[in-house]
TrEMBL record:
<dbReference type="InterPro" id="IPR014729">
    <property type="entry name" value="Rossmann-like_a/b/a_fold"/>
</dbReference>
<dbReference type="InterPro" id="IPR006016">
    <property type="entry name" value="UspA"/>
</dbReference>
<dbReference type="Pfam" id="PF00582">
    <property type="entry name" value="Usp"/>
</dbReference>
<comment type="similarity">
    <text>Belongs to the universal stress protein A family.</text>
</comment>
<dbReference type="InterPro" id="IPR006015">
    <property type="entry name" value="Universal_stress_UspA"/>
</dbReference>
<protein>
    <recommendedName>
        <fullName>Universal stress protein</fullName>
    </recommendedName>
</protein>
<keyword id="KW-0963">Cytoplasm</keyword>
<feature type="domain" description="UspA">
    <location>
        <begin position="3"/>
        <end position="142"/>
    </location>
</feature>
Length: 145
């Protein structure tokens, strides 16, 4: 079975990315390994007293993101594609590459923005960083309006 790592950010194009990844997984008899990387500064706020940390804000945000990740997993499973997921906090590129290694990934699937001819805007800085650093192929799906 082909292992596909699919990073998701819950943005407005996530549905299109899921559809493309499911189509690809069906073509190659693949398993989708969803991953969402949350930033490490979720619970921090700047106010009159400087930086403050609110653990309850971070906990609520992580809980909500896990619910969203579970829903995406169920959508993939509904297409008879094997799927699991992981939510971690940290630096997205590093966490995704670590997860791909752990899962013995054959592909990392990312989405393009399709907004401009400028490479950084077209592909995105995370996708660009992954394509430069990944030991496995990075499949970039065109995601358009």
């Amino acid at each position: 079975m082909i292992n596909i790592v699919l990073p998701v950010d819950f943005g407005e194009k996530t549905d299109q990315l899921i559809e493309g990844a499911v189509k690809f997984a069906k073509q190659v008899n693949g398993k989708i390994n969803l991953i969402h990387v949350a930033p490490t500064d979720i619970g921090f706020a700047i106010g009159d007293m400087g930086y403050q940390y609110f653990p309850e804000v971070e906990e609520n945000e992580i809980r909500e993101e896990l619910v969203q990740l579970n829903k995406l997993q169920q959508r993939v499973l509904a297409h008879d594609i094997d799927c699991e997921h992981l939510l971690k906090q940290g630096i997205a590129k590093d966490i995704i590459l670590e997860y791909a290694k752990t899962k013995h990934a054959d592909f990392i699937v990312m989405g393009s923005h399709g907004r401009s001819g400028i490479y950084d805007v077209f592909v995105g800085s995370l996708t660009k960083g992954l394509t430069k650093s990944s030991p496995v192929p990075v499949l970039v799906l065109p995601i358009h309006d």
